[in-house]
Structure formats: C-alpha cells, structure tokens
Design goal:
2 strands; 16 helices
C-alpha cells in the first residue's frame, strides 16, 4: 500500500531553485522487525517506555481465530507445559540456516503450545526456507500464533491480510491484528496501524491517531516511520506544524540511509528550515542519495557543483552528474545551458566519468 501525503515544504530559493522536498509516500506494509540477514528474534524488541499511549488490545475472539484448515496443531490446553529453555534449539538451527531441522523442532514446540514456535513455522513456510513456499499454510500458523498471543504472529498475519497473501484481502481484519500487536508495544504494528489511520483504509481516517502510532514507531527506531513522522510535522498532518521536529526526524532517517529522507534533509539544510543553514552537509546528503541512484539527488548535486553550493565549484563534476541524472529521466534545461560552455575536452571527460560511474553502479560498486 502506498499512502500519498500532502506535499512537504515549498521550493528552496536561490542556488537550487526548483528543488522541493519530495512528496512523502508511506512505505509498503512492514512485516519484519529484523533485517534481511539478521537472526530471528524470540521476542519483539522492547519499545521505549512511555513514548506514546497505544490503544487497548482487541479481544482475539472477535474474528481472530485460526483458519480451520490443516497445518498448525490443535489448541493446547491452558495448562500445557511450556518448552524448557533448551528448546531454543529450533531458533539456533534457524539462525544457522538449518531450516528443515528448525521446522521439525518448531513443530514439536508448537505442539506443546509455544506461541513463538507457531510464528517460526509460519515464517519458514512464508519465505520458503528449506521447503516450498506456502502462503496459505503460513497464514494458518501465523493465525494460531496470534491467537496464542505472540505479537510477531499478529503482525505477520495482519500483513498477510492487508496484502491478501495466502488468504482473502481484508484491511479491516488486518487493522485488528495490527491493533492487537500495537497494544503489546510492537513498533512495526504501530507503524502499519498508522498507515491505516492515515488513509482511512481498514480504520476510520484519523490523522491524530496516525500521528501517535507513527511517533511510537519512530521513537522505537523504525527508520521509515522516522521519515514519515518528519513529513507529518512538516505538513501539520495529525499535529501542529513544527519545522524543528520535521528537520529532527527527517534528519534521523537521513543519517540512517533513507534515500528520500536524505534528499529532503538536504533541502532543509540548504534552506535552514528548522535547523541552521548548512550547505556543505546539504550537498553531502545529496551526494549520498545520488550515489544510491536517486535521479533527483543526482540533478541537485549537479546544480551544487555548477554553482559551488556546499562544494567546490566544478563544471566537469556538474556535467558528470547532469549526464547521470539525464539517464535517470531528469531533464534540466537551465543547467544544460550553463554546461554548454564546457570545452569539448571537458565535456568528453565528464561523459567518461558518468559512464564509469554507471558501470560501477551496475555491478554494485557505488
């Protein structure tokens, strides 16, 4: 789901006229709290206490039962013995890439009523790790783990409902699962719930509630939430406009490598909107985003070099980045006219540098 927000700040004046903060779009559903190569966690990361008051949990008997299809074990007795700590072996096997062993051990733990074991089995089927990908079966295991109270399972099942993976799409039901996990202080569940409240899709449109959940997720360290929170402060959506807070949160996301945030924060630094003007840092953030392939940043970096804004003036470097930006679909007539003054030798040098950059980027060296 992509949630289009209102445009951010107006175009910056002077050297980089025509530059404006990108219209913020919230990201796709976030379904994992660990990184792509990080080991699975037995527990969701603890959120900062007192960051935001989250809404109460949803009764899990309200449409939140596991599907009646084959897969997860039957409901365990309320007095079922929980697996001893030694049975973390399933997670150790998973971390070591021994997915079949992890699956076998997790199924046994699930039979004894371990909620997180259900979630682990669901992830193995959802990602096709060591076995065939099976979204429908993954949904069943996630649903049972959610019913047993694991917030990671609630989040994962909510994502599947939101996207219609392995079961019929149902944003309202997804909202209930996100809400239940958010009540357990799960950062990504709060983020996804914020998206629903922003658009009014699965939840009534409520910018203030969206802001609260977004702030919780941002304070818990979700980088996309940090960027989106900054845009809410910039546009005054769900809260009073606050240039200082907007710069603070967009800057946090930029420092962590969020490309759109790097572009927007560079503009903020050039304009001095909410922070002291700092063209040098602004140009550096344009460079970081440009090196990642963002055509808009490549064009802005070319302008910086053309005018000596935050960098030493160099028409050759300006031409290099202008060529790269053009290949990415960004046309700049004013910059073209300025660079037309280059000698043939300098123009050839800039073209060669641009081609070299593209070759390196193509093999992931940039």
């Amino acid at each position: 789901m992509k949630q289009a927000m209102a445009k951010l700040l107006t175009a910056t004046a002077g050297i980089i006229a025509g530059t404006s903060l990108a219209a913020a779009e919230t990201s796709s559903w976030e379904g994992r709290v660990d990184g792509p190569a990080a080991p699975i966690q037995r527990k969701a990361p603890a959120a900062k206490p007192g960051a935001v008051k989250v809404i109460k949990t949803v009764p899990q008997s309200d449409g939140m039962q596991a599907p009646a299809a084959a897969g997860p074990p039957e409901k365990s007795s309320a007095h079922a013995k929980q697996p001893p700590p030694s049975e973390d072996a399933a997670y150790e096997a998973f971390d070591q890439g021994q997915y079949i062993t992890a699956l076998q051990l997790a199924v046994k733990a699930a039979e004894r009523g371990d909620p997180q074991a259900h979630t682990l089995v669901g992830r193995i089927y959802a990602e096709g790790l060591g076995t065939s990908r099976n979204s429908s079966l993954a949904a069943q295991w996630y649903a049972r783990g959610a019913e047993l109270g694991d917030p990671e399972a609630m989040l994962a099942y909510g994502v599947m409902l939101a996207d219609g993976q392995g079961l019929e799409q149902d944003r309202v039901a997804a909202g209930r699962y996100f809400e239940a996990a958010a009540a357990k202080r799960h950062p990504l569940a709060n983020y996804n719930l914020a998206l629903l409240f922003l658009k009014g899709d699965g939840k009534p449109e409520n910018p203030h509630r969206a802001f609260m959940h977004m702030r919780f997720a941002a304070e818990a360290g979700i980088v996309t939430a940090q960027y989106d929170l900054g845009t809410l402060y910039a546009t005054g959506q769900g809260t009073d406009p606050n240039a200082f807070e907007a710069a603070k949160w967009i800057g946090k996301a930029a420092e962590r490598g969020h490309v759109e945030a790097q572009i927007d924060y560079a503009v903020i630094l050039f304009r001095g909107h909410g922070v002291p003007p700092d063209p040098k840092r602004g140009a550096e953030f344009f460079r970081q985003a440009a090196e990642k392939g963002a055509a808009t940043a490549q064009n802005r970096l070319a302008r910086c070099y053309a005018h000596g804004a935050g960098v030493e003036q160099s028409l050759v470097e300006a031409a290099k980045w202008n060529f790269i930006a053009k290949a990415g679909g960004i046309e700049d007539e004013a910059l073209d006219k300025m660079l037309a003054k280059l000698s043939r030798a300098d123009r050839t040098k800039a073209q060669a540098a641009a081609e070299q950059w593209r070759d390196r980027a193509a093999v992931g060296l940039e």
